Amino acid sequence: MGIRLGCIADDFTGATDLANNLVRAGMRVVQLIDVPSAGPEEAVDADAVVIALKSRTVPAADAVDASLRALQWLRSAGAEQIYFKYCSTFDSTPAGNIGPVTEALMDALGTDFTIATPALPDNGRTVFKGHLFVGDVLLSESGMRHHPLTPMTDSNLVSVLAAQTTRAVGLIDHTVVAEGAEAIRGRSDALRQEDVAVAVVDAVSNDDLVRLGAAVRGMPLVTAGSGLAIGLPANWGFKPSRAAAQLPPAGGHAAVVSGSVSAATNRQVLEFLRSGRPAFSLDPLRIAAGEDVAGQALAFAEAHLADGPVLVYSTEEPEAVRTVQGRLGAAQAGELVERTLARVATGLVERGVRRLAVAGGETSGAVVRALGLTGLRIGPQIDPGVPWCAAPLPDGSTLHITLKSGNFGSPDFFTSSFALLDEETR
Ligand SMILES: Nc1ncnc2c1ncn2[C@@H]1O[C@H](COP(=O)(O)OP(=O)(O)OP(=O)(O)O)[C@@H](O)[C@H]1O
Ligand SMILES: O=C(O)[C@@H](O)C(=O)CO
Where's the Four-carbon acid sugar kinase N-terminal domain (predicted)? Predict the structure, then answer.
C-alpha cells in the first residue's frame, strides 16, 4: 500500500513542525531531506512522507521546480492527497513563493480549487476575517515585520496571496468554519462557481482546524501551516498516539547552533547567556573580513563541550541585523552566516556532539545539508511545533537533532530541550 498523505514543506524546521503534528495525530511519518534522487521503488513504510525543501526564499522559479519534483516523487509513492506546508507567519514576498508554488501544484494536479491557512493556534497564530494574528497582534505589528528575508508588513492574507498569484483569491470566514465541514464545503463550492481558485480560511482554534480537516477530505491539494495536520489524519481513521514518537537512547556532547534572528530566539539566547553557560557570538562582519570565525567558534566549543550544552550563535536584535545587512546586503549576509554555521555544526559533530539543537529555518536547512542527513525519524515534542528527531550518521552512530523555527520554543529551550531528550530516551 502506498502512503496516504504526501507533504511538501518549504523549509526544514517547518517540515519537522508538520511531521510532529502528523505523528501526534497517529500517523507514522518519514521526513526526507530534499527530493530523493531515486524514485520510491517499493512501497514506503509510512502513512505520510514529508519532503523538506529549502524553497521559501529562493527565486520563485526554483521553488516551483523543486516543489514539482517533490510532487512527482510523492505521487509515485502513492500519495492520495498533497499538503503544501509553509510558515505559520506566511513568510513570502510579492514575488512568492507561496502563490507560484500553489499555482504550479494545482496545475500539475489538474485541480481548480484549494485552501490556504497558516493558522497554528497552539503557537498563537490565528486567522480571523482573513487577517493573520501572531499572539495578540496583527502579523504586520509582530516581529515578522523586521524579518531579514521576508518582512511581513500586510496582515490581510487575501491581499498578500492575491499579489503572488494570477488566480482569484477568496475567503471562507470564521462564521462558516464554525458551522462545520458541510458549511465549509458549501462555501468552497460557491467560491469555485465564482472562479475563486484559492480560499484563505479563518481558524482561531484547534476545533476550527479539525472542522476544516474534515471538510478537505479528498481535496487533491491543501496548502497550510502545520496546524491543518491536526485535523487530517482522522480522515483515514488515524487516532492520536505517542507510540510513533519513540527514539533510540541519546548520548554524546550537546550543542546549540543558532542563526535565527527572530524575537523568540533572541529571548532564548538571552536566557542561555543569563544561565552563565558557554556561548560564542559569531560576528558576520568578521566573517566577511576573511577571519576564520568558524575555526574560532570550534576552538571555543572544544574547550567547553564537557560543560555543555555550548551555544554558537549569530542571533541579534533587528537593528544589529539591519546594520550588517546594510554593509553586506541581506542575501549575502544570510548566505555567509548560514555557510559558517553549517561549518560549525559539522565541526561540532566531528568533535563528538550527538545532541544538537539548531535554531532558524534557513539555518537548519544549511546545517542538515552540510551534515549530509537524508532522512529524519520524528520523536517526542519539546514545545509546540518542535520535536526531537534522530538521524543516522555515516559512522553508524545516531545524531539526535532538533530544528527549531525562529519564533517557536519556550525561553529556556536551549537547555530544557536537552533535559527532555534525556528523560524521554532514558
Ligand atoms: N547577525 C546577523 N546578521 C545578518 N543576518 C543574519 C545574522 N544572523 C543570522 N542571519 C541570517 O538571517 C537569516 C535567518 O533566517 P532563519 O530562517 O535561519 O531564522 P529565522 O528567520 O529567525 O527563523 P524561521 O525562518 O524558522 O522563522 C539567515 O539567512 C541567517 O544566516
Ligand atoms: O509554521 C511555522 O511557523 C514553522 O513551522 C516554520 O515554518 C518556521 O520556519
Answer: 5-231
